[in-house]
Design goal:
Elements (H helix, E strand, L loop, with lengths): L2 H17 L3 H12 L4 H8 L8 H37 L18 H15 L3 E2 L5 E3 H4 L24 E3 L5 H9 L4 E10 L10 E11 L4 H16 L5 E8 L2 E10 L16 E10 L1 H6 L8 E8 H9 L6 H4 L2 H6 L2
Parallel strand pairs: 1-4
Antiparallel strand pairs: 2-3, 4-5, 5-9, 6-7, 7-8, 8-9
This protein binds 3,4-dihydroxyphenylalanine.
The site of 3,4-dihydroxyphenylalanine has 11 residues, from strand 8 and strand 9.
Length: 340
């Protein structure tokens, strides 16, 4: 082969290498030139057909060609790799001046929030926090609480029944008998949770929340109930809170009382929250009726108890200045954000 032809092959290959746009094409050129069946390899093989005196010159020309093509391939490889790197850096570029995405921070819903606050205070006072089923038997919801079948006091709680015996609990008081059956006095429990009644207006929702408290020990008196509730209410609503006992009736307590707290909005002066009275009705309570203790297997000669139960929705509404209970269940993010 003439030297000029070798030169032409060289410039053709180098032009192709220069024009290669990616590593795949470059590799194809390498195979085409230097591979087993490649053009340069074929030339080298042809050397043996030449007369011995021409071989050194031809060999040198082929070596020069191979060297030039290899160098050119290497340079192009470096250039393409560099290009790829720059493209990658460009594509993966982080613009640190770009405004951050608007990630909204969630917050605790007012109901779990009030449950957390109350149970924290109660745990500090030595109470255990318990739970009970929301689908409850007539026995635990009513009969064990001294509310027999067909008793008029059942009318106080407009109950959702599944069958004559199975219902959605209308009061967390249903856990009282369950706990008394399994625990040995003395004990102190609170049970926050969902309760259900067929009732719906600005201050009543068919699903609502209560927290029940029960203390059973020897020598329990109204004074224990009063001091415990005073501490609880002061820690929840503020140290200047006062409480007031009014006589009332519940089948499961004797005597029974209703407990009012001084209005935390106006500190007892009278405002729209407390409808000018300075006080808010908050809970029912009393000394556990000995019949209730006996039904659950507790010796009422030896032990006495006090119990209390209150609405958590109402408590949360007072704490957060919410005037319609439905706001607690609509899950409107604009409303919930104000509760943070
Ligand atoms: N369970 C009552 C209700 O839902 C509230 C209540 C009153 C609970 C007095 C008590 C209690 O434990 O002693 O209206």
């Amino acid at each position: 082969m003439e030297n000029t032809e070798i030169k032409r092959l060289q410039s053709e290959l180098i032009a192709e290498i220069d024009a290669a746009k990616d590593l795949k094409t470059l590799n194809e050129i390498r195979v085409k030139a230097l591979g087993k069946a490649g053009a340069i390899t074929a030339l080298s093989k042809g050397m043996r057909d030449l007369p011995a005196e021409e071989r050194p010159v031809f060999g040198a020309q082929i070596n020069q060609l191979r060297g030039a093509v290899e160098e050119s391939l290497q340079n192009k490889l470096n250039a393409l790799e560099q290009e790829n790197l720059l493209r990658q850096l460009e594509e993966e570029k982080v613009d640190i001046t770009e405004p951050a995405k608007d990630n909204k921070l969630g917050s605790v819903h007012p109901i779990p929030d009030v449950i957390d606050r109350l149970t924290d205070i109660c745990v500090d006072m030595g109470f255990s926090v318990v739970e009970g089923p929301e689908i409850e038997s007539d026995y635990y919801n009513f009969e064990a609480m001294n509310i027999p079948k067909n008793h008029p006091s059942r009318d106080m709680q407009d109950t959702f029944f599944f069958t004559d015996e199975i219902l959605l609990r209308s009061q967390t008081s249903a856990v009282q008998a369950r706990e008394m059956e399994t625990r040995k006095p003395p004990f102190k429990i609170v049970c926050p949770g969902k309760t259900y009644r067929n009732d719906s207006d600005a201050t009543h929702s068919p699903v609502f929340h209560q927290m029940e408290g029960l203390v059973v020990d020897e020598n329990i008196s109204m004074a224990d109930l009063k001091s415990m509730l005073t501490i609880l209410m002061r820690r929840l609503f503020g140290e200047d809170t006062t409480i007031r006992f009014r006589p009332s009736f519940f089948p499961f307590t004797e005597p029974s009382i209703e407990v009012d707290v001084s209005c935390p909005s106006c500190h007892g002066k009278g405002c729209s929250t407390c409808k000018g009275t300075g006080m808010l009705e908050l809970l029912g309570a009393g000394i556990v009726n000995p019949k209730v203790l006996e039904m659950s297997g507790i010796d009422s000669k030896k032990y006495r108890g006090f119990a209390f139960g209150f609405g958590l929705d109402r408590t949360s509404m007072i704490l957060n200045g919410i005037n319609n209970i439905r706001n607690l269940y609509r899950n409107d993010v604009r409303f919930l954000e104000q509760m943070k």
